[in-house]
Design goal:
about 120 residues; alpha+beta; three-stranded antiparallel beta sheet; two-stranded antiparallel ribbon; 2 helices
């Protein structure tokens, strides 16, 4: 019985590790749906990508030194994907989320890629 105890503990430990690993993948960006793309070029860890046609929701995001808040771009997009939309439906999280940075320094645009229907 004594020799069995370490095996049981090892098995339980491995199962717990596998469960945590699975949970990590499901809650990380790797677990989210994303649009199809092809890599145009790569330098180190930086990729230049060409995305296929996609549907997206976009919202302005004020840059005023304050983080978050109900009216921030993230707050509006979060409410949108959690049911505050025309169909009152939850929308699956996707990646990537884009931030358009070629507008004025006090306002940017946050863009959420919609999942495929």
């Amino acid at each position: 019985m004594t020799a069995m105890k370490p095996r049981v503990l090892l098995t339980l430990g491995l199962l717990a590790f596998a469960g945590l690993l699975w949970l990590g993948v499901k809650t990380s960006r790797a677990g989210y749906e994303g649009p199809d793309y092809s890599v145009i070029s790569k330098e180190g860890e930086v990729e230049i990508r060409r995305y296929e046609t996609m549907t997206a929701a976009a919202t302005p995001m004020k840059i005023d030194g304050k983080e978050g808040g109900r009216d921030s771009g993230f707050g509006r997009l979060f409410r949108f994907i959690t049911g505050d939309n025309e169909r009152e439906e939850n929308i699956a999280m996707t990646s990537p989320v884009f931030i358009e940075s070629d507008v004025a320094a006090t306002e940017k645009v946050m863009i959420f890629v919609m999942p495929e229907a």
